[in-house]
Each structure stands twice: as structure tokens, then as C-alpha cells.
Amino acid sequence: MSASIELKDIHWLIDMVQNIDVGLVVIDLNMNVQVWNGFMENHSGLLTAHVVDKKLNDLFTDIPEAWLQQKLDTIRVLKNKAFTTWEQRSYLFKFKSYRPITSNAEFMYQNVTFLPLTDITNKVTQVCLIIYDVTDVALNKQMALEANQQLEYLSHTDTLTQLNNQGFWRECCRTEYKRHTRTQQPASLIMLDIDHFKNINDTYGHPFGDEVIIGVANSIKENMRETDIAGRYGGEEFTLILVDTALEPAKLVAERIRKSIESLTFNHLGEQVKITASFGVAHITANIANDQSWIKAADLGLYIAKDSGRNNVAVSPH
């Protein structure tokens, strides 16, 4: 009677191991597979008979052998559990993800627990790997991270031009001024304004005015370096911080953007519309006490450019 109960219990245990919704793999210290449950069969396509007594790294060559060996050595010596999460290593076994809710995942994200298995002398002879499918958790966290990054981007971006908005650009300007005071590296600032923009809006309408603003923003993007910092300062006014740039090179950049804007052609109901812009340039000198003074100096250059006929580049006399 007791033997019958014992056999029944063993059958129940085997049935549970085969059908539990986690992967169970037992390997010896030479990485030879001893146990391979139903979860592993279903996701790998390899039956137990195909893997038992075969080295795990021969079966799955993308598992880093040195990394796994170090895990086994640590477990053997310390006789403690070890873990690896999907954030440390996306997966141990590269399985496809089959859950409908995670169908957009290229593979199954996994957490893995390593359990030491000892013999009657308390010597670790095998290690049990428990593989958890955490694809849902991983994707949800990644989606939340992407959403936060998008929100951060939107918080400092002008929606029309995709340039930095005024608030964030001012922060960048303050940061760059501080960097200059610390390193004494040159830095220049360009402010530009679309000429007669009110007439453009009054004549052709605000939607067309938005097209013009977008076109000017694109000209700035096409003529700036990755390290430069562009922004929409407000309305039809734009700004550009030129990092590590002295006055003369900054004037050349402003002139290049001016020519690019002058070459633009916009179409309004068959009519070809041309525009121009005026530019003020200022570099940081001993007379520039802070970032606000730097902005005012560039703005003064812009005023001079407007006053001297527009569609030109002027330098602030500071």
C-alpha cells in the first residue's frame, strides 16, 4: 500500500515538473543536461531524448560558455542560489515569444534562477536552472520608459518646428555660458528673425505662415552641426548656440543659413513666394556678464541687421 502511494506521489511530481509553466533544466558541473521539462521541449523544439547527456553549450551555442562556467563555479563553492534578470541579459535561451499579448516581441525575455543540487555528502554535483518567461514585464517596462522619454522630448520641443522650445533653449544657453566660464572655450550665439513676417501672415494666412516657419527651421537644421543647439525663440524668431565657435566662423554659419533661407521658394495657390531673414551674432567676451547679457547682445545685432536694410548679418558691438 505504501509503495503504491509512493509511486503515485512520484508520478504526480513528474507530471507537475513536465507541465509547470516555467522551464526546468538540470545540468551537471560539466554542463551536461540531465533534466529537460515540457516547457523547454515546447519552446526549444528539442525533446528530452535529444538533449539528455549532451553539453548545453553544444545545443545552444549563443550561451556564453565562460559566463555560464563562472556561474557554476560560484554556485559550487558557495552553495548559494544565483540569479540573472532580463535587464542584465535579455535571455539565456533564445526562444520565440508565443503569447498573443507579447506578439510584438522578437524573443522571450527571461529571468533565470540557478539552484545548487547536492548529494548525500552535501557536495554540489548539479545545478537546476529555472527559466521564467517575463516578456510581459519587460515589454511593459520598456513601453513605460519609451513613453517617459517621449514626454521628456515633448516637454522641451516646439511642436511646429521640432526645434527646442524657448524654455529649454534658455536652459541650454545658461549651461553653455557656464561651460565657457569654466573652460574659456569660445562660444557664439545667432539670433534670426524672418523679415516682414506679419505681412506674410496678413497676405497669405497663418497656415502658410506656419509653412514658412517650418521651412526656415529646416534650413537651420541643414546648416548646423550636431553639437550646435537650435531653438524657436518665439513667433518668427530663432536662435542657434554655436559650441566651441569663435566670432568669425559664427558669422560664416549665419551667412550660410541666410543664403539658404533666401533660396527657399514657397507656393501659395500657384504664386511663388520668396522670403528673407535678418541675423544678429554675438560671441562671449569679457563684457558678457551672464547668459542674459549674451542673448541681449545677439538681439542687439539682430536689431542692427533689421535697421540696416534686413536680409543681412550684423555683429553686436559689445
Automatic annotation (TrEMBL):
Residues 185-318 form the GGDEF domain. It is an enzyme of class 2 (transferase). InterPro entries: Diguanylate_Cyclase (IPR050469), GGDEF_dom (IPR000160), Nucleotide_cyclase (IPR029787), PAS-like_dom_sf (IPR035965), PAS_fold (IPR013767), Rev_trsase/Diguanyl_cyclase (IPR043128). This is diguanylate cyclase. SMART domains: GGDEF. It comes from Psychromonas marina. Its EC number is 2.7.7.65. Pfam families: GGDEF (PF00990), PAS (PF00989). It catalyses: 2 GTP = 3',3'-c-di-GMP + 2 diphosphate. Transmembrane segments: none annotated. SUPFAM superfamilies: Nucleotide cyclase (SSF55073), PYP-like sensor domain (PAS domain) (SSF55785).
